[in-house]
Amino acid sequence: MTRKDFTLSQRIALAVIPRLTAAILAAIGTTLRFEVIAEDGAIPSPIPAKGIFCFWHQCTLPCGWYFRKYRCTVLISRSFDGELIARTLELLGFETVRGSSSFGGAAVMLTMQEILSGGFAVAFTADGPRGPIYQTKMGPVKLAQITQREIGSFYLLPERAWTLNSWDRFLIPKPFSKVIVSWSRAVAPPAKDADAAMLEAKRMELNEAMERARLNADNHIALRSKAG
Fold it and tell me: Is the pTM of this model over 0.85?
């Protein structure tokens, strides 16, 4: 997006907020402790990551810090909020692709295919820029169908966090919090010739995998609290 796409106040915000957010996240991030859990059959991705990965918009900040060394490219919407997130992630070392599977879809998918072909990872905030919360869009499934790559799912949950009053209940980890990195089993790609009903079934399978990652993190923290 270019300067003319934004108002003066938005341009000021874009000049200040990403740098401030990245600096604050770096300051908080150095104090965070991470614990990796995985359901049966799930294999956490090594560094550098390869393939297709999905996470919920809610945990973008802890994901941005934890995965900054994984050389991921993240799909970000072409909105003002998306521009803020993209610039913040780029300051942390991520590459970004702007658009969605519906807006500029063909070009976005081609770019993501090229990244995968180069042996790198691509990541989706699977519930998109505006939700609804915990409901994955079809984009990752379509990319998996085209490339025949499986889809990995993870969720990062801080034990202590500020929760914003936004559609996604956006999480900001509190300093010195432990963060649970929860992985679910990878979802196999749909067949190349899958019809609309098959793609929808695969989307629901991915949604269930992502929710398992989230709920397993919730349960893990709840059990630790009872034991403590």
Answer: yes
